[in-house]
Design goal:
8-stranded antiparallel sheet, globular
C-alpha cells in the first residue's frame, strides 16, 4: 500500500478492507473508513468488523481500566448482526462510541472521551483481533485499486501465529511516526488531509505475529477508546465490540 491522501478520491484511499487467506479465498475481517470531506474539521475513523451468518454482535464500555488489570466486562448484545450495524467510531474530537445494531433502534452504547485523533502525541489507538476465520464472508481476490484497497494480513495459524492482529496508530508527523515505530518504515501509512485541521493526520497499521497454536474461537474483536497519547501507567477508558457465533458469547 502506498502513502496517499484520503481527501482525493481520484488517487487517494477512502477505505481499507482487512482480509486474510482462508478456504480457497480471502476472509473479510474488518473495514476501515474515514470521515468524508463534507466535514473539513473531522478526522474520524470508523471500524466495522465483518460478521458471519446468524452471528451475534456484542459491545462493552469500561470508563477506566487500570494498568495490567484483568476486567470482566458487561456486554450488550444484538442477535442476527449485519455488516455495517456493528461499528466503532473513533471521532476526531476524541470521543469513541459504538453501535451494536441498527441506529434507528437506539443501539448506541455510552461514549468515552480521550484526546483528539490529531493530537501530536499520537500512538496506538485501536486493535482488531481474530483467532479463527471460520464463518466470515469470502472474496476471491484482493483489490489493489484506490480508493478502496484490500490489505492482506497473516491468517491465524499462518507461519506459526496464534491469531490475526492488526494494531492501528495515529500521528501528525510522518517521519516521527516512522522513527518511533520501526515497522512503519516500509509498512502502510495513510495520510489524511482536511482543510479544517491544523495538520495532516497519519494512520499506520501493524500486522503482528504472535507465536503459538491456533485456537477454534471464531469471531472478530475490535478494542479502542483510550485515544492517542494514552499513558500505560494510568487508568484508560476501553470500548470493545465483537461479533461471533451465538455459542461464543465472551470477548477474545
Amino acid at each position: 500500500m502506498t502513502t496517499a491522501s484520503a481527501q482525493l478520491p481520484a488517487r487517494g484511499i477512502e477505505s481499507v478492507r482487512i482480509i486474510a487467506a482462508h478456504d480457497g479465498g480471502f476472509a473479510q475481517v474488518a473495514h476501515l473508513s474515514w470521515a468524508p470531506p463534507t466535514n473539513p474539521g473531522d478526522a474520524s475513523l470508523y471500524i466495522r468488523p465483518y460478521v458471519g451468518e446468524g452471528w451475534t454482535a456484542y459491545g462493552s464500555v469500561t470508563p477506566a481500566v487500570a494498568p495490567d488489570q484483568s476486567v470482566n466486562v458487561e456486554a450488550e448484545r444484538h442477535r442476527d448482526a449485519k455488516f455495517g450495524e456493528l461499528k466503532m467510531s473513533l471521532h476526531g474530537s476524541g470521543q469513541t462510541h459504538v453501535y451494536i445494531g441498527p441506529r434507528a433502534k437506539n443501539n448506541r452504547l455510552p461514549a468515552v472521551m480521550g484526546r483528539p485523533l490529531h493530537d501530536p502525541s499520537g500512538g496506538h489507538i485501536a486493535s482488531i483481533t481474530c483467532f479463527d476465520l471460520s464463518g466470515l464472508p469470502l472474496v476471491q481476490a484482493p483489490s489493489a485499486q484506490a480508493p478502496d484497497l484490500d490489505l492482506v494480513v497473516p491468517a491465524p495459524g499462518e507461519g506459526g501465529t496464534s491469531k490475526l492482529n492488526v494494531a492501528l496508530f495515529s500521528g501528525t508527523d510522518e517521519q516521527a511516526m516512522r522513527t518511533k515505530h520501526p515497522w512503519l518504515t516500509t509498512g502502510p501509512l495513510i495520510r489524511f488531509d482536511r482543510t479544517g485541521l491544523p495538520t495532516p493526520v497519519f494512520f499506520g497499521l501493524r500486522c503482528g505475529y504472535f507465536p503459538g497454536p491456533r485456537t477454534s474461537t471464531p469471531g472478530v474483536t475490535v478494542i479502542g477508546g483510550w485515544g492517542p497519547g494514552a499513558q500505560p501507567n494510568g487508568p484508560i477508558p476501553m470500548v470493545s465490540i465483537w461479533a461471533a457465533p451465538d455459542s461464543e458469547q465472551d470477548p477474545v
